[in-house]
Write a structure and sequence with these properties.
It comes from Planococcus halocryophilus. One of its GO terms (molecular function) is non-membrane spanning protein tyrosine kinase activity. Belongs to the CpsD/CapB family. The chain is an alpha/beta fold. The protein has a single domain, classed as Rossmann fold, CATH 3.40.50. It is 45% helix and 16% strand. It has twelve helices and seven strands. The chain has a seven-stranded mixed beta sheet, with helices on both faces. The protein is globular and about 50 Å long.
Amino acid sequence: MRTANKTKRLMPRKLVVRTNPHSIAAEQYRTIRTNINFSIPDLTSKIILFTSASKEEGKSTTAANMAIVFAETGKRVLLIDADMRRPTLFRTFQLVNNTGLSNLLLGKGNLKHSVKASGIPNLDLLMSGQIPPNPAELLESDILDELMGEMRELYDYVLVDSPPILSVTDAKILANRCDGTVLVVNTGKSEKVSVEKARDSLATAKAFILGVVLNNYPLTSENYYYHNYND
C-alpha cells in the first residue's frame, strides 16, 4: 500500500489544456483567465498567487493549466513553484529541480539564468530549487521584492504556486506581495470550516482575493449541451 501511494504522489499533474484543449475543463480555465483579467484590468504585469486551504485540493494543477492558457494569448508568462517544502512543478514538466527560487532568495544566481523553458510557447518556469531549512524566512527577505520587480519587467503574467495557507505561513507572506490570490477548493473534499479559515487568513494578510476555483465540480446536463455545441 505504501508503494502505491508513493507512486501516486510522483505522477505528473494533468495538463488538460494541452492533452484535451477543447474539453469542458480546458474552457473553464480560459473562463477563469478572462475573469482574472477583468478583476485587475489596470495592471500591465500581473502577479497572481494560487493556494488552497489544505493539501491535495488541486492548486498546483490549476496553476499549471492557468499558466498555459495565459501563454496561449501570446503573453509572456512565468510559472513559479514557491512551495519550497513539497515542490511538484519539476515533475509536472518533467524537468530537474537543481536550482530555482530558493537559490535566488539565498542570493545565488540570477533570474534569467534560473528560469527553464517549458516546451510551450511564451511559458517559462522557475522551480522551487533545493529545499531550504527556512522557507518562510527566505520569503520575508527584501530579495523577494527585488525579484518580483524584475519579473514584472520580463513577464506579463507571473503565476505563483504556494503551499496550502492553513499548513504554513508561506502563502500568507506571498499573498501580501501578489496582486491577487486565487483560492482552490476541492469540491466534495474541502470542509466549509477550512475554506472559511483560509479566507480569513488571506484577509489577515491583506490579500486581494480574486475568487475561488471549485475543483472537481460535477458536470450538469447544461455543461454537456454547451460542450456539444462547441464541437
